[in-house]
Amino acid sequence: MNENILTLAGVHTHIGAYHILHGVDLQVPRGQLTLLLGRNGAGKTTTLRTIMGLWRASAGRIEFNGRDITAMATPQISQLNVAYVPENMGIFADLTVKENMLLAARWARNIGQIDEARLQWIFSLFPAVEKFWNHPAGKLSGGQKQMLAVSRAIIEPRELLIVDEPSKGLAPAIINNMIEAFAQLKASGVTILLVEQNINFAKRLGDTVAVMDNGRIVHSGSMREMAENEELQHSLLGLAI
């Protein structure tokens, strides 16, 4: 089995008249948490959306588990046990937390058909999901909505979880809870690709890191190496971790 669960080779993406990705080469090792870092506007979100088929690559190749998914539609990609949590979380505000979770459980027609052990595991990761089970999702706080968004993504077993800025706008206590949840997810065998601006979040969780600039990957390596090298941090990100 290939050690990389996801590979992008020379991927270009155009959005209308704009050329956003300029030949992205990215490898996501199986069973690890890979951080995608970079300044605002570097192309990180476009990379995630292109992987998921929400925007179509105009050139290059995307492989998941050795299978070419470059031209696949988003529903087809999700059926390969890939889940995506966008930056805006994408929850249904007028539905309850329970109804949001049921919608995400594709093969369940009612809540009783959801794997009870898995549901209890999710409750242990994100207690707020259980606490507000019958509340409208739109009434949750920002942190609670983020917990719900991740919970929906993992209501069924996933091989790859792709998350765009999970700690954005969250209080430190909730960020710590999110870090622990992702650590448990990784320990359970889920491969995670994460876009994150919170450097402490990245340093505590990341195994490997790729840095984007102007629509390209300009550095890839271990998170530990980057965390210990201030000169590298300044040259790539303009800051020190």
From TrEMBL:
Record Pfam families: ABC_tran
SMART domains given in the database record: AAA
CDD domains: ABC_TM1139_LivF_branched
Database matches in InterPro entries: AAA+_ATPase, ABC_transporter-like_ATP-bd, ABC_transporter-like_CS, BCAA_Transport_ATP-bd_LivF, P-loop_NTPase
PANTHER family found in the cross-reference section: ABC TRANSPORTER ATP-BINDING PROTEIN (PTHR43820:SF2), HIGH-AFFINITY BRANCHED-CHAIN AMINO ACID TRANSPORT ATP-BINDING PROTEIN LIVF (PTHR43820)
One GO BP annotation of this record: L-amino acid transport
Biological source species: Ramlibacter tataouinensis
Coiled coil feature spans: none
Family label: Belongs to the ABC transporter superfamily.
Protein name, per record: ABC transporter ATP-binding protein
Residue span(s) of domain ABC transporter: 6-239
Alphabetized UniProt keyword annotations: Amino-acid transport, ATP-binding, Cell membrane, Membrane, Nucleotide-binding, Transport
Transmembrane feature ranges: none
Molecular functions (GO terms): ATP binding; ATP hydrolysis activity; branched-chain amino acid transmembrane transporter activity
